[in-house]
């Protein structure tokens, strides 16, 4: 109904009161294609517009829910490295929540880019509705029905997981959570080495330390919750991927 878009906008305002001023929200809503056509935009249309997904489709005929494995671990634990090899060996499609957020930040005309930029600089998490929306959009782009998806760097907080559960819990089938454990010392060293060549604004010592704090505060509680539900399968990446790959094979076999 017509209340839904304003609900979304008030949620955005609660999340980032300094960023989402009334004027900025009005501009966002006015830019939505339905509003431009003189109609009252629906929530799905506003979300799709904000995330650059084009018009939101109606009822979908979905044969087979996609299977999902979440890949969790601290910054520099090896999520990307492990994911790449799992994709190669087990035929999953790979989505990195972080990469999707960074791509959205670079996308010309993105309504979310400034918010994402500000959040990343602070080492803070992106609002869950944005992250889940970007993940769903990419899964659908890659085929969705009956697919096997490895989603790395998600969920990063209890709110991420609750939002996933609310929006996609019924649509996708979560198989298990692959947790990569790694010591802070090893992660810090890997990130500093990566920062020499990655060009990523968050691979510097100051931001790395902020990311570790965010990881402990936000990500550890969600790992504990998923663990209490018997969903977590773990490996320790300190010795490097080759040393523990036989353990990964047992998990994914």
Main beta sheet, described? 5 strands, parallel
Low-confidence stretches: 53-62
Write the element-wise H/E pattern from the N-terminal end onward: HHHHEHEHHHEHEHHEH
Inertia-based shape = globular
Topology:
Blueprint: H1 3-15, H2 22-30, H3 33-36, H4 43-50, E1 67-73, H5 79-90, E2 93-96, H6 97-106, H7 113-121, H8 128-141, E3 148-152, H9 158-168, E4 173-181, H10 184-198, H11 205-228, E5 232-236, H12 241-252
Parallel strand pairs: 1-3, 1-4, 2-3, 4-5
Helix pairs in contact: 1-4, 6-7, 6-8, 8-9, 10-11
Note down, in words, how this protein is organized.
By secondary structure, the protein is of the alpha/beta class. The chain contains twelve helices and five strands. The protein starts with a helix and ends with a helix.
Quick recap:
The chain is an alpha/beta fold and 253 residues long. The protein contains twelve helices and five strands.
Q: What are the main properties of this structure?
A:
single chain, 253 residues, alpha/beta, 5-stranded parallel beta sheet, 12 helices, 12% strand
